[in-house]
Write a structure and sequence with these properties.
Distance between the termini: 51 Å
Low-confidence stretches: 333-341
Number of domains: 1
Mean pLDDT: 87
Helix content: 40-55%
CATH architecture: 3-Layer(aba) Sandwich
Structural class: alpha/beta
Shape: globular
Strand content: 5-15%
Strand order of the largest sheet: 3-4-2-5-1-6-7-8
Oligomer: single chain
Radius of gyration: 20 Å
Number of strands: 8
CATH superfamily: P-loop containing nucleotide triphosphate hydrolases
């Protein structure tokens, strides 16, 4: 019997942090390592993954599958120029698919799980729509992409808060009192949280002990992997202790620090020329960092990584090249400094 594929949802709290770029290049890197890989564009309503793979946007995809009465999702896979890598388009020839219905989602999710591949990377839409949160729930070990800036990090943490609240909501069934509590919690900004997820679960457990047990078991399944994109200096990771503290105190969640991709002018060159990045700039700093993330996926994806923040900091310090002209140029042009501000 064939092994189940490893599904890797890739999400972000906000747009513009390099989520689709990272998804495409991680898929290329895993395929180059000899693994049968499928890149799926689930950013319905804003599909652009094809561009990072060097493919035209002319193939039918998920949108067409959801509108059709017949046909199988797997039949819409598109070959790519890269060995071991296939692509499943999103909107395809059917636009306006951002808000798919519950029925359409129930049709789609089981078929995503059955797609033939070793690794299935899902490029999700930015933000916290229920569809995005439910697609992220296809695996307890999704990747969250952020840039090392305060607002982007806060958006990433807010995504995780809303994701856990969505998990809890789906665990309590038709208990309207609890569902109303959860909706109120979803409206609170992360900075204004008056109660943590654990405190919320305690209140729910008092209302319904069985629901409390189910929720606790459901939330313990999740351990997201965080990737920082467009970093400029190892000091950009100094705020990892604050992130860990927020995850534990507010969200009752553990996470692994899975990768750090330096700002790289070669990325901009690839995007502007509409050419795939990894095969054209294989020795660039960003390409080498993405290759290391792919290696970690193969070696450690199913395993928690103790002291992952410290281990990643050591790796980033070794990789740091302070004389990089592109990095200096970026610092001058943006005036950005790492860390939470």
């Amino acid at each position: 019997m064939a092994l189940k594929p490893i599904i890797i949802p890739v999400a972000s709290g906000k747009g513009g942090v390099g989520k689709s770029f990272l998804t495409a290049n991680l898929a290329m890197s895993l395929a180059a390592m000899g693994h049968r890989t499928l890149a799926v564009d689930l950013d319905l309503g804003g599909a652009n993954l094809h561009g990072f793979l060097g493919l035209p946007n002319r193939y039918p995809g998920i949108g067409d599958f959801l509108k059709a009465k017949r046909g199988e999702l797997a039949d819409l896979r598109v070959p790519t120029p890269f060995e071991n890598l296939e692509f499943l388009p999103g909107d395809g020839k059917t636009p306006f698919m951002a808000n798919i219905s519950y029925t359409q989602k129930r049709k789609l999710i089981p078929r995503l799980r059955r797609l033939p591949a070793e690794y299935i990377l899902l490029d999700l839409g930015a933000g916290t729509t229920f569809n995005t949160l439910d697609f992220f729930n296809l695996s307890p070990l999704g990747i969250l992409v952020t840039v090392p800036e305060h607002h982007a990090v806060m958006n990433m943490l807010a995504f995780l808060k809303n994701f856990l609240l969505r998990v809890i909501e789906r665990s309590v069934g038709r208990n309207h009192a609890i569902r109303n509590m959860l909706r109120d919690a979803m409206k609170q900004p992360l900075e204004d949280q008056t109660s943590s997820i654990s405190q919320l679960v305690a209140v729910i457990s008092k209302e319904d002990p069985e629901a409390g047990k189910k929720i606790t078991a459901a939330c313990r399944r999740y351990r997201p992997r965080m990737v920082f994109n467009e970093g400029e200096h190892p000091d950009d990771l100094n705020f990892s202790a604050q992130i860990t503290q927020s995850l534990r105190q507010i969200l009752s969640l553990e996470a692994d620090y899975f990768g750090f991709v330096f700002f790289d002018s070669a990325v901009r060159k690839a995007v502007r020329s509409q050419t795939p990045f990894l095969p054209n700039f294989p020795q660039s700093p960003a390409a080498l960092a993405i290759g290391r993330i792919a290696e970690r996926i193969v070696k450690y994806w199913q395993t928690p990584i103790p002291d992952s923040a410290a281990l990643l900091m050591d790796r980033v310090r070794k990789d740091f090249a302070p004389t990089s002209k592109s990095r200096k140029k970026k610092q001058v042009s943006t005036g950005r400094s790492g860390g939470l501000r």
